[in-house]
Write a sequence for this structure.
């Protein structure tokens, strides 16, 4: 049986990714490791400061049977990819499939974040994916800093509503209009259904990342 490991920095992500994986392919097993201290340390001292614990968590997941590790934290994901490459562990950062989809969806991209660090990690990834696909992109930053405290307290309903309202106002006001909305953090997945009225693609990382992970571990034509 194929197995995907998930490295999280918030307990709220476990159910989200487990459900998405089982919806995508019930035959793929899942392993979850949560370390809330990784994000706190990365925000305080920089992502490079968590290289050693990242390497340890990745090795633990592989030892338990993971063929691929999906790093679900956008802030520590880039470092997880680098550490994984050095250690010979297949790692997929959660926002890479979303970034690849975004640059194909349109030139003007609304980049939504509730943490500055999330925008700082996704911004270069979007530009990297644009170059790889021969595209040009214009990034429109939409910040939702006041929403993050609701996520930290576990109030996901308020968090999602706050993010959606900020995006709604920003997207309606910007000119020229954006082509696609990218919700930078996995924590923002609940805001996407609240933005259907925008009549724009609203991309979130969890589902796209899970789909990509399954394709990486399940043999073609199985």
């Amino acid at each position: 049986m194929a197995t995907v490991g998930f490295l999280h920095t918030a307990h709220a992500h476990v159910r989200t990714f487990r459900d998405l994986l089982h919806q995508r392919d019930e035959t793929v097993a899942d392993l979850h490791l949560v370390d809330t201290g990784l994000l706190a340390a990365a925000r305080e001292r920089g992502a490079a400061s968590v290289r050693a614990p990242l390497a340890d968590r990745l090795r633990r997941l592989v030892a338990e049977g993971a063929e691929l590790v999906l790093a679900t934290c956008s802030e520590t994901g880039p470092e997880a990819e680098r550490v994984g490459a050095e250690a010979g562990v297949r790692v997929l950062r959660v926002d890479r499939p979303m970034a690849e989809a975004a640059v194909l969806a349109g030139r003007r991209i609304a980049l939504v974040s509730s943490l500055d660090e999330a925008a700082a990690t996704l911004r270069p990834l979007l530009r990297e994916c644009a170059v790889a696909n021969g595209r040009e992109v214009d990034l429109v930053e939409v910040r939702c800093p006041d929403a993050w405290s609701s996520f930290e307290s576990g109030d996901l309903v308020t968090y999602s509503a706050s993010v959606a309202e900020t995006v709604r106002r920003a997207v309606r006001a910007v000119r020229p209009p954006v082509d696609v909305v990218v919700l930078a953090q996995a924590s923002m997945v609940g805001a996407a259904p609240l933005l259907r009225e925008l009549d724009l693609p609203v991309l979130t990382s969890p589902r796209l990342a899970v789909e990509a992970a399954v394709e990486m571990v399940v043999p073609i034509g199985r």
